[in-house]
Amino acid sequence: MSLKYKAHNPDGIYFVTLTVVEWADVFTRRDYCELVCESISYCQQKKDLIVYAWCIMTNHVHLFCSAPKLTDVLRDLKKYTSRFLVDAVKMNSRESRKNWLLWMFKSAGEKSASHGEYQFWQLGGHYVELSTNELMEQRLEYLHQNPVKAGFVEEPEHWYYSSARDYAGEKGRLEVVLIE
Question: Transposase IS200-like domain: which residues (predicted)?
Fold first, then answer.
């Protein structure tokens, strides 16, 4: 993996993007989003993950986060969620795209020696250290405006799977340390 896609500063806050293979729109189902939220919450409680901002879009997840061993925490998060999300797709009797999604995850898994039968997330992840206030403000605006620009909501705080709710003074889905 390229050095630019790792977290080198253990005290840094990073903007991280985790993307579903082939940009498949998996997170159109609430139960899949909930699995990601539960996994992030677990990492917050057990792995010292601090989340400052986040947003789940239909095919990727953005996080502003930090942890003493962030790369390891996110690797574990991806490994865990990958297994449980693939299982959730398999078990979901109402999933109209089940065969297509499983075929896509299996095809990606066959191309990667480091994965099992299925691969859910694209390899690596995009890590940007938020080393200046300007960069932090720019990325925070981008993250919270993502659902608005996609046409899903009129206001960022209307997107349930986003920290925009917390930044608007409402209670959000995950525990967030607000950036002042």
Answer: 9-146
**HEC per residue, 68-135:** CCHHHHHHHHHHHHHHHHHHHHHHCCCCCCHHHHHHHHHHHHHCCCCCCCCCCECCCCEEEECCCHHH
**Which ranges constitute the DSSP H helices of 150-180?**
164-167
Q: Give the contacts of 66 (CB within 8 A, at least 6 positions apart).
A: 11, 12, 13, 14, 49, 50, 52
Residue ranges of domains in the chain: 3-167
Does pLDDT of 58 surpass 80?
A: yes
* 3-167 is a CATH 3.50.50.60 domain: no
Query: Is there a contact between 10 and 69 (Cβ–Cβ < 8 Å)?
Result: yes
Residues 6+ apart with CB under 8 A from 12: 66, 129, 130, 131
**Which residue from 41, 135, 145, 25 is spatially nearest to 85, judged by alpha carbons?**
25
Interval 5-52: pLDDT, tens:
566 787 899 999 999 999 999 999 999 999 999 999 999 999 999 999
Measured distance CA(115)–CA(22) in Å, rounded: 16
Q: What is the pLDDT of residues 130-168, one digit of tens each?
A: 999 999 999 999 999 999 999 999 999 999 999 999 999
